[in-house]
Design goal:
The complex is a heterodimer of chains A (about 230) and B (about 280). Chain A contains 8 helices and 10 strands. In chain A, helix 4 runs parallel beside helix 6, helix 5 crosses helix 6 and helix 6 packs parallel to helix 7. Chain B has a 4-stranded antiparallel β-sheet with strand order 2-3-1-4. The chains are: A alpha/beta (about 230), B alpha+beta (about 280).
Chain lengths: ~230, ~280
């Protein structure tokens, strides 16, 4: 990664508002997240953490303000270009969001299939990421037969298989025990070391305390505090 | 195919809906085709029988023939002598031959059989012509029992119109039912579709498998409907031919090209149902 990239933000929000009826889910949010950065968005339940992630991948549209992702103004992204925008992201959820009637392999392969990757390359890449996630021996199993930790490892494999620039994780360890949570965080750190930006929405104090990272603290949809902290802070 | 197998119940409901619609609509079509054939056959046979008074001589017979020939709408006149009429009766009543053999005199009169031009075969024209023939002094009586065909044709045409209207309604109802069953299938896959969109799937990527499923379901449903209709046809035609002479009623099945068009139509219905439900579903979600 070039120094220029490191110094430049990959995600920028300018005075962003998101309203659901009269209620502000986000109000006047302005943040920068740099290339290859590890950023936590934290705050109490209902603070607007998940909304912020949704706005980044155009799961929702802003009510006011602007968002730039990798230099692209999301307001100028046409409806038909949204699939291309989403391929820049790998998204991980607390409830895994795996397709129940597809095997672990098929769930991961889907990302490459929608991007039109050749079948031989799909097989090779999927097997590689599932091996990295420690799930190569269970690749033919369906999600209901996997534990929560295993399902989340498949979800991480799905998030990284397309080599996205940004990983968005919404409470990725929220429903896992500490051992499984540790595995997930290690997988994400490994992926960050390959140049990706990791943005995690969480209120899990344990994982917040373990890493040096940018922390954005939200309350009632407003950014109350943000900055780089080390695990010693 | 995997999607269809995963949603087996809804797939079967869709196929059965298409099959039933095709069965009912095609059965109506088959009825009209055969009723039309019968009507055409009857129309060809429309004639007026003019029975001649006894003791009419040959000159008078010739005059009657000439008078009838000049009347509007007459295509052909055939003289049936009383002897020829008796021979015909003997052929028709083979089993009751003893009754005829015991006749001491021939009770049948001479007659003229009058055939009308096809364009003159309306009920009113048959009636007018019959009245004019009946007015001739040498004519004892006229019979045009098949004049009811004129009225029947009008009723048949009315039914044809109702049939076409019903067919159009059936089409709309079928498309509505199919689009709703497919929407049901899509709702059952809503999470899957959300995930596909999340990982960057285009609408085309999501739609194409559903379209293919719609086409396959349409083709299977249409073929199943036609097979059911054919089985019904075989059963009914066998019964009819057992009870009636095949000269009286001959039922035919739909031709190959019509059957092919019905399958093309059912494929179109499957596709249209899919198209409508996907359009609405993807707009909403």
């Amino acid at each position: 990664m070039s120094e220029l990239q490191k110094k430049h933000p990959i995600v920028r929000m300018f005075h962003v508002y998101k309203r659901y009826g009269p209620k502000n889910a986000l109000a006047d949010v302005s943040i920068d997240i740099d290339f290859n950065e590890w950023a936590f968005i934290t705050g109490p339940s209902g603070a607007g953490k998940s909304t912020m992630l949704k706005l980044m991948y155009r799961g929702e549209t802003v009510s006011e303000g602007q968002i730039l992702v990798d230099g692209t103004n999301l307001l100028r992204v046409a409806q038909r270009q949204i699939p291309l925008l989403r391929r820049k992201f790998g998204v991980i959820f607390q409830d895994f969001k795996l397709i129940q009637n597809k095997t672990a392999y098929e769930n991961v392969a889907l990302v490459l299939e929608v991007a039109g990757v050749k079948p031989q390359l799909i097989r090779k890449k999927v097997q590689t990421v599932l091996r990295q996630a420690g799930m190569d021996d269970k690749m033919n199993q369906y999600p209901p037969s996997l534990s929560g930790g295993e399902q989340q490892r498949v979800a991480v494999a799905r998030a990284i298989v397309g080599d996205p620039k940004i990983i968005l994780a919404d409470e990725p360890t929220g429903s896992l025990d500490s051992k499984s949570a540790g595995i997930i965080m290690d997988l994400l750190k490994g992926y960050q070391s390959r140049g990706a930006t990791i943005i995690i929405a969480t209120h899990d104090k344990e994982i917040l305390s373990k890493t040096s990272q940018r922390i954005i603290y939200l309350e009632n949809g407003r950014v109350m505090d943000q900055g780089i902290r080390t695990s010693m802070d | 195919m995997k999607d269809m197998a995963d949603n087996m119940f809804i797939t079967i409901v869709t196929i059965v809906t298409i099959a039933l619609s095709i069965l009912i609509a095609s059965a109506g079509g088959l009825l009209f085709v055969n009723a039309g054939d019968v009507m055409d056959g009857w129309k060809k046979g429309i004639r007026i029988m003019a029975y001649i008074k006894p003791d009419v001589n040959q000159d008078e017979l010739d005059q009657v023939r000439q008078s009838i020939a000049t009347m509007a709408g007459v295509r052909e006149i055939r003289f049936i002598s009383r002897q020829a009429a008796l021979e015909d009766l003997k052929i028709q009543m083979k089993r009751q031959m003893s009754l005829i053999d015991n006749l001491e005199i021939n009770p049948l009169p001479d007659a003229y059989e009058i055939f009308m031009s096809p364009e003159e075969q309306s009920f009113e024209k048959i009636e007018t012509l019959a009245a004019r023939v009946d007015a001739l002094s040498a004519i004892d009586d006229v019979e045009y029992g098949q004049a009811w065909i004129g009225r029947f044709t009008q009723v048949f045409n009315l039914f044809k119109f109702i049939g076409i209207t019903m067919g159009a309604l059936f089409f709309m109802v079928t498309v509505f039912i199919i689009s709703n069953t497919i929407r049901l299938a899509l709702y059952s896959r809503r999470d899957e579709i959300d995930i596909m969109r999340l990982v960057g799937a285009t609408d085309a990527f999501i739609k194409i498998p559903s379209f293919i499923a719609g086409l396959i379901q349409g083709a299977i449903g249409g073929t199943a409907g036609l097979i059911a209709l054919y089985i019904g046809y075989l059963t009914i035609s066998a019964n009819i031919e057992r009870n009636f002479s095949s000269y009286v009623v001959h039922i035919r099945f739909l031709s190959w090209d019509v059957a092919l068009w019905i399958i093309v139509y059912s494929i179109f219905v499957g596709w249209l149902g899919c198209f409508l439900s996907l359009k609405q579903f993807l707009k909403k979600n």
